[in-house]
Amino acid sequence: MSKLSIIIHPDPRLKKVASPITNITDRIKQLSADMLEAMYEASGVGLAAPQVGITKRLVVMDCSNEGEKKELILINPEIVWSSEENVSFEEGCLSIPDVREEISRPMSVQVQFIGIDNTRREEIFDGLWATCIQHEIDHLNGKLFIDYLGPMKRSSITRKMIKLKKQLNRKK
Ligand SMILES: [Zn+2]
Question: Which homologous superfamily does the CATH classification assign to the domain defined by 12-171?
Answer without folding.
Answer: Peptide deformylase (3.90.45.10)
